[in-house]
Amino acid sequence: YLLYASGDFVKVYSVNTEEIVRLMGGHADLVTGIQLNPRNHMQLYSSSLDGTIKLWDFMDGILIKTFTVGSKLLALYTLASAEDSVFVVIPKKGERDTFQLVSVKLTKGAGQDLEGKELSVVLDDVGASMKHTAFGREGAYVVSVKDVNLQVYFFKRKLLNRFSLSTLKTKGGDNRFSCVVCHPKEDCIATGHADGKIRLWRNFHHKKEYTYSTLHWHHDIVMDLAFSLEGTRLLSGGVESVLVQWHNESSCQKDFLPRLGSPIEYISMSSDGVLCSTLHTDNRITIINSNLRFSRSIQGLIKSRDVKTGLVVDPRTKALVLNGEPGHLQFYSLQSDQQLFSLDIVQRQYIHQAGLKQSDLVKVAFSARGTWLATVEESEEVTDPELQLKLWFYNEEIQSFELNTRINTPHDNHITDMCFRDMVELGDDSLILVTTGRDCVFKVWVMVEDTDPEAQQSVSWTCDFVGSYHNYQATNCCFSEDGSLLAVSFEETVTVWDSLTWDLKCTFCHPPGNIRNICFGRLTCSKYLIGATDYGFLCCWNLLTCALDWSAHLNVVVLQPDPLSEHIAAVSWLSKESSLFVFKPNEPRPIYIQRNLCKEKILLAAFVPRDEPEITSSEKYLWLRKSQLFFLTDTQELMTLSTKSLEERLTPSSKQLAVEESLPVTPFSLLLGKHRRQQAQEDTDPGKLVVHNKQEQASPAVKELLHTPAHVLPSASFLCTIFINSLLISKENKSAEEVADEVEMESEKAEDDSDEEDGTAMEQEDTSHMELLEEVTCKLSKSQEKELRKIRKMDYSWISAL
């Protein structure tokens, strides 16, 4: 298994099946470190910025212990020689940007939540990154680097040695430390530096007699280092996207694995030395064999420099589409939490060098069926940008998009927005593409038959109409749900155009401030047009009356309509706080408000249609039944709103139980199953009293209690809530028949009272019989009770005549 931290979760990845088999969540903030338990390799320690250390059984995905330290934890280390203790990096109290390495005594106790307040300082003024501290052979010493300083602390001798390099940057040299790692078998320290050099330190037990040798291949900073299991090989990585393997600490013997795609941030070796993994800056993990051969990779959501395309949903795959690698579009699957594929749009080699003006992808739009894709790419020049509009058609044979039309300089200045006319019922014959630009015009592009006999495609795209309004810059555009109207914003004014004749129908304005976002209402709210200004106003105009229906003072940065309902999501940014407001245009009062949604600023949002409507019992989440809302923050973290709690989403043994139920049957299980079937048949025989009890053992909560090994079970207080909830009977809605039965029961209440005396006597006679069924409760339905009352009131006097 490969274990890695992802946000505030820890994921367990199967190297063989290439699937995520466990998702362990419980931290309230970013996970900063994970380490295997040295005394039990089936357990894992994790640290977080929330100030807690958690112990997991990662095979079953069960949380065993939580130790509260009370301070932000920036890195985590474990040692086999340090019993019941771990090492963490924490901020030093009273000093800014100063950190210290401390030892945390893990308290032993019966409960699950324990205190980890017993701290002892090991080193002061250490680096905040996990790569800045390393433990030596068998935990005899600890090494820390910061700036140009290296310090070594020997535990038994309680000796601290400090070493410093020159701060002068001569001949391109930069001696600042970037990472450190220790040899697993010998007293040797390897350090990486900002100028690309690697130094191997020896004899550092003495302050003056120490020595070091130098290895140099990287032209820029060494990002990370790692020794092999026996220490015969040293791996290094940096911004060159090349993994370098050094043999026997010699600069002459080295191997390379090039073209890994992006700079290497971290290198990790497996415990058996067979595999190593590299973490890259594009949020990708590469697994590499010991012979330096590529094995497989795990690609997450790529972090680009700037997500200029926005969050777009592919109608075919329901994948999120946004900027990926430079000049590429990434199609990201939300179901598998992995990248589906990457589409090269710019089709130029990207050069990793500062100061170069290179083309990048800025706008993306899909047609309603996903058969057409429009992209806009432009150079980084501010005054005279190089623009290209490309139309791509999806080829079913190759299962990818092919370039159909390339239009050079579609506008004289930057393109600000782009949209297709979405009319699914008319198909691609009604396709229209609209682009807006800073050249104060919007352009309409339509498909025409290609008359060129040498052309490979039968259709191409051309400009059909150019519109403008008082020489104002065009900023946003969108079509109504039926495609009959086009709204284009020109600075402070919103214009509405007929999409058949391109006549200007009406204009709306709400000064002061330019229009930041616009969108049409849908379904029953299709007569409304919503707009947000950069002066902090949210406006709703009625297209039938051409008047303002309502406005709200709200600084909206994101305005996103749900394509499957009338709901519109608005995200505001005020006082360093992102808040979510969900509303219908015909109701000015929001139906859902979530203040302080996240700490970061939300820049983009998108509704993704669900495969099936989600069943939710909470009324406040009914607007999420058909679609799921995703957000992208300024730190490029992808988040979503969930209708389920964390306990409901994380069921550690659910997959395990599902596997057990699908296992092949054994002779014993066949015998046991036959006995159960016979018992079920006896219960259904007529004339026998059948008492139906809730089968508690069929509950997942009870199965988890019975199937989980006892030594990894959480405390009873943690399982109590889940267990009690599993025993509760869900409240069902009353049918019309049951309501009628209740009315009839009330009318017969007087007759029932007259029979109470006889019933009391019967109860006294049957006391001895009821003692036998003391533990059994027979609960009849209301219809059955009604039938019994009718039988009791029936006249049986005719029997005496027989």
UniProtKB/TrEMBL annotation:
<feature type="region of interest" description="Disordered">
    <location>
        <begin position="735"/>
        <end position="771"/>
    </location>
</feature>
<feature type="compositionally biased region" description="Acidic residues">
    <location>
        <begin position="738"/>
        <end position="765"/>
    </location>
</feature>
<dbReference type="Pfam" id="PF23769">
    <property type="entry name" value="Beta-prop_WDR75_2nd"/>
</dbReference>
<keyword id="KW-0539">Nucleus</keyword>
<dbReference type="InterPro" id="IPR015943">
    <property type="entry name" value="WD40/YVTN_repeat-like_dom_sf"/>
</dbReference>
<dbReference type="InterPro" id="IPR057644">
    <property type="entry name" value="Beta-prop_WDR75_2nd"/>
</dbReference>
<dbReference type="InterPro" id="IPR036322">
    <property type="entry name" value="WD40_repeat_dom_sf"/>
</dbReference>
<dbReference type="InterPro" id="IPR053826">
    <property type="entry name" value="WDR75"/>
</dbReference>
<dbReference type="GO" id="GO:0006364">
    <property type="term" value="P:rRNA processing"/>
</dbReference>
<keyword id="KW-0677">Repeat</keyword>
<keyword id="KW-0698">rRNA processing</keyword>
<keyword id="KW-0690">Ribosome biogenesis</keyword>
<feature type="domain" description="WD repeat-containing protein 75 second beta-propeller">
    <location>
        <begin position="311"/>
        <end position="636"/>
    </location>
</feature>
<protein>
    <submittedName>
        <fullName>WDR75 protein</fullName>
    </submittedName>
</protein>
<dbReference type="Pfam" id="PF23869">
    <property type="entry name" value="Beta-prop_WDR75_1st"/>
</dbReference>
<feature type="repeat" description="WD">
    <location>
        <begin position="24"/>
        <end position="66"/>
    </location>
</feature>
<dbReference type="GO" id="GO:0032040">
    <property type="term" value="C:small-subunit processome"/>
</dbReference>
<keyword id="KW-0853">WD repeat</keyword>
<dbReference type="InterPro" id="IPR001680">
    <property type="entry name" value="WD40_rpt"/>
</dbReference>
<dbReference type="GO" id="GO:2000234">
    <property type="term" value="P:positive regulation of rRNA processing"/>
</dbReference>
<dbReference type="GO" id="GO:0003723">
    <property type="term" value="F:RNA binding"/>
</dbReference>
<keyword id="KW-0804">Transcription</keyword>
<dbReference type="GO" id="GO:0045943">
    <property type="term" value="P:positive regulation of transcription by RNA polymerase I"/>
</dbReference>
